[in-house]
Amino acid sequence: MPHISQHAMPDQKTHLGKAREISSIPRSNHEEKVWVYPSEQMFFNAMRRKNWEPKEEDMSVVVPIHNAVNEMAWKHILEWEAMHKTECNQPKLMKFQGRPKDITPKARVRSWFGYKLPFDRHDWTVDRCGEKVTYVIDFYSGKPDPKNPFAPSFYLDVRPAVSVHGIWDRVRMAWSKGDFF
Questions:
Q1: Rounded CA Rg of the chain
Q2: What value does the mean pLDDT take over residues 52-75?
Q3: Which end of the chain has fewer CB atoms at under 10 Å, N or C?
Q4: Which Pfam families does the record cross-reference, listed alphabetically (predicted)?
């Protein structure tokens, strides 16, 4: 994550938290061993920098959801990585890039059949023992839980990016889950 200020915006009316949560996601090629999530203030500042219109009062809810969704994405990536037995046995996240305006071909085709487009997309690059592997993540709003209709719900479509190895991994995963039949 680029350096984002912990300073309040000049027109900010509410104090936002500056504490940062440590993730479970191992970090590649960095002195910090794991990724550290942005504070409420950093998240607010980043959204403003991207010309979004965040509400200060939402940050105490939005930031924990952001962190939980990223943890969920990493768990999905680990499911894909489990197909690869490597000597280091520890994939690490090298970098990530938010691409909310770039619709993946899969999401576009699904939309032709009436499905909603994802609200966000990320590309995460993983270090698999020296090999760079990119994963594409489409973020969708999930179905509400009837037992807790106010709880946020998300569906993540996580898969290797299109490449010879990525397509092969997709076929292997589909076969192992019996998704061909």
A1: 18
A2: 94
A3: C
A4: Cyto_heme_lyase (PF01265)
Question: Cβ-count burial of 26 within 10 angstroms (0-12 exposed, 13-18 middle, 19+ buried)?
Answer: middle
SS3 category, 62: helix
Q: How many residues does the chain have?
A: 181
Tell me, yes or no, if the pTM score tops 0.85.
Answer: yes
Residue whose C-alpha is closest to residue 167's, from 105, 110, 96: 105
Q: How many CA atoms lie within 13 A of 132 on its CB side?
A: 7
- 3-state helix, strand and coil shares in percent for the chain, rounded to the nearest 5: 30, 25, 45
Q: Which two tokens stand for residue 122?
A: 């990320």
145-167 pLDDT, tens digit each: 888 877 788 899 999 999 999 99
